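seq:
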Amino acid sequence: MYRTILVGLDGSPREAEVFRTAVRLAKTLGATLHVCRGVTIPVGLPDAVWSMSMAQLDVALVNEAERAVDARLADASDLAIGKHVRIGQPSDVVCDTAKEIGADLVIIGSHGYGAFERLLGTTASKIVHRCPCSVMVVRVTQ
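struct:
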């Protein structure tokens, strides 16, 4: 049924539970698990960043995100796992990666709704509406 699963990681406090859910499901189904993280330029940048070129900044942001993803992957070393870390809006990166790898299922975390998110739409909502395959939204209670 689901042979290729993609889980979207975002560095939030909910990420660990979303990842655990994806690992459990992949193990149960004997599926290949891919992890994905879209990297954007954070709002509060250190002053040292302003002396970097955009290319240098992109590389530094991707490298940091890859280190965070690698740390998370250490919890599932017994699975076949693909890693995809790219610069871009997270919803676009997840949907594009799902299409590229032929994912059967995407697993993401839900997000709370403040006024701003209701106006613009959350990353989770964008993924649910744009993804080329089924999407599982994991609700994590804090």
